[in-house]
Amino acid sequence: MSDQARIRVLGVDDHPLMREGVAAIVNSQPDMTVVAQAATGSEAVEMHRLHLPDVTLMDLRLPDMS
Questions:
Q1: Taking the CA atoms of the chain, what radius of gyration do you get in angstroms?
Q2: What's the pTM?
């Protein structure tokens, strides 16, 4: 499947193991790909602006904002 046809996902969580686990599951899907990851809310905003993902999977409680 071409990269243009894949669902582009941004993963946001302050726990690295959780981010990596979600990324592994998403990347194992043939129609999805993780385009960026972030550990804080402010980093998530920056990554979203930079990569314009189709979907953001985000922890609701982050160190710098909720």
A1: 12
A2: 0.90
Q: What is the SS3 string spanning 5-63?
A: HCEEEEEECCCHHHHHHHHHHHHCCCCEEEEEEECCHHHHHHHHHHHCCCEEEECCCCC
Q: Label residue 30 exposed, middle or buried (CB < 10 Å: 0-12, 13-18, 19+).
A: exposed
* pLDDT above 90 (res 1): no
Residues 6+ apart with CB under 8 A from 44: 10, 12, 38, 56, 58, 62
pLDDT tens for 20-53 read 999 999 999 999 999 999 999 999 999 999 999 9
What's the first-to-final CA gap in the chain, in angstroms? 35
